[in-house]
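Appendix B, Record 12. Input sequence as logged:
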Amino acid sequence: MHAPLGRNRKAARKRPGILRIGQIAASICLVAIGGFSLYTAFRSDGLEQVKPPASQDRSAAPPTDTIQQPRTPGSQAANGMSRSEPQSGANVERMVTGDGSVVTKYSPRPRDGSGPVLVDAMQMGQDPRMAAIPNETLLEDTPFGRLPITGPDGRRPMDQYARPWSGTRGTRIAIVVSGLGLSQTGTQRAIQQLPEEITFAFAASGNSLQRWMQDARRGGHEIMLQIPLEPFDYPANDPGPGTLLTSKSVARNIENLHRAMGEITNYTGVMNYLGGRFLSDPQALEPIMRDIGKRGLLFLDDGTSAQSKTAVVAKGTELPYAFADLQLDGQVDVSAILQKLDELERIARRNGQAIGVASAFDESIDAISKWSEEATMRGIEIVGVAALVNDPRNP
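Logged structural output:
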């Protein structure tokens, strides 16, 4: 009772200092870290930079070093002919520049060995990027423009501008859409919507023919030129200016032919526009056919005249020629045209090939576009006209 509450207790016993234990642990950690750092500093890890020998000192070396790459020999094909490898025709050199980068240099070298070489090509046939550019060796300058001719090596425009095909002897059909160039909208629609296998025939009296020709060729189409010929009911039925007439002289008809030929380039041949009377007159027809054949072109008869002498005259002049088997759009109706196309297919399956001709009507374009897609799935190959002609060079 003489001391305040709790003052009469003995002083508590002091516990070992917790702070002192923590200080000891921290010291141990620091010693361990320091020791590990010294160990890694003196240990070789393979990443240190090695000083190059004096002979390779960059200050004393020339700016570049050249390493000659061994030549890669061509492989052997199964038939024993050498096959070109991607680098078999080049020397390969690698140059190490002053900053250590490597530059590879390729230069041509003579091919080892003799005899033919098989070159693997990524693309065969017509290149659409070049199809609108004429072969200069197949053209001659005349007062009527640049006209097609057979080249010095015997190559014909018919060969140069023909659409490639598979070469198999299956069922083949050529479809020609004619009258292009007469209507801007019709021509544009045909080029935009019809598949590239369809052959286009441009009327010599059409407009902007060079422009349309280039568009069509870039699209992969084989093209022809339509020449106006005298029909039986001329002049009541007039094909237009420059029509070839049986009453005109040979020189005048040749002049009109050449004037029409100069309108465009890159075509495989000529096709008649009307011309029942002219085609039935051998005396008028023969010099025209002879000129066409001499220029390396083909002639397509649209088959509308039963009195045509095309076959007889063409054989006498060695002109490549063909006849159309069907007019597809005598009735301008999609259903009727589809029926004609089915009939054309039956002819082709029976004879191995067939040619159909249509005009650039909207209905014709729609029907041909639809039918051609389905025909391909049935095993029909749609080809350019040049693939189906009677050619004296390839009997």
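The two ends are 145 Å apart (CA to CA).
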